[in-house]
């Protein structure tokens, strides 16, 4: 009887580990998909509008203070995730008080990110 219980216990452990493992695998796949949506191409018109903002409100300062992140039509999709985080999540950018985005500009950036299928 005791042996049977130990067996059952071990089988239970195996099953739950397997479930944990597959859940982990699944979440990894989801993260991958989320990353991809930031690289995916956006609607070209909306992208152009967003680029005008990056150029006039972000590059002006980055040119002097952060030359490794000068946004262009070519690299902005690649930087979309960081831009999203800095502007909408951490609200660190635009840095300081000298440059401000209007509500409309925030909306345009959001539309660009959304047109990349990112919610
Ligand atoms: C007044 C200056 C200034 C303005 C305006 C500005 N930035 Fe920055 N930004 C910086 C500096 C300096 C850094 C590097 C140091 C840091 O991260 O604080 C930086 C870093 C960043 C980074 C990289 C953060 C990381 O994860 O390494 C991103 C993305 C970024 N800025 C996006 C933007 C966007 C988008 C705008 C416009 C909406 C903007 N910035 C406007 C000065 C500025």
What would the keywords be for this entry?
119 residues; mainly alpha; binds heme C
Report Rg: 23 Å
Bound small molecules, which ones?
Answer: heme C
Find the structural class using helix and strand composition.
mainly alpha
- Order of SSEs: HHHH
Flag low-confidence runs.
none
- Give the overall silhouette: elongated
Q: The biggest beta sheet, please?
A: none
Share of helical residues: 55-70%
The portion of residues forming beta strands comes to under 5%
Mean pLDDT: 84
Give me the count of strands: 0
**How many DSSP H or I helices?**
4
Head-to-tail CA distance between termini: 55 Å
Descriptive account of the structure:
- With 119 residues, this protein is an all-alpha fold.
- It has a domain at 44-115.
- Helix content is 70%, strand content 0%.
- Helix 2 (44-65) crosses helix 4.
- The N and C termini lie far apart (55 Å).
- The model has no long low-confidence stretch (mean pLDDT 84).
- The chain binds heme C.
């Amino acid at each position: 009887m005791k042996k049977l219980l130990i067996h059952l216990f071990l089988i239970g452990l195996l099953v739950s580990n397997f479930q944990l493992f597959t859940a982990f695998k699944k979440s990894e796949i989801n993260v991958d998909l989320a990353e991809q949506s930031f690289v995916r191409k956006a609607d070209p018109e909306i992208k152009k509008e967003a680029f005008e903002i990056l150029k006039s409100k972000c590059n002006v300062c980055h040119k002097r203070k952060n030359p490794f992140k000068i946004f262009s039509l070519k690299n902005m999709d690649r930087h979309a995730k960081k831009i999203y985080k800095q502007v909408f999540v951490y609200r660190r950018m635009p840095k300081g008080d000298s440059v401000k985005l209007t509500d409309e500009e925030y909306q345009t950036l959001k539309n660009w990110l959304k047109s990349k299928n990112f919610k």
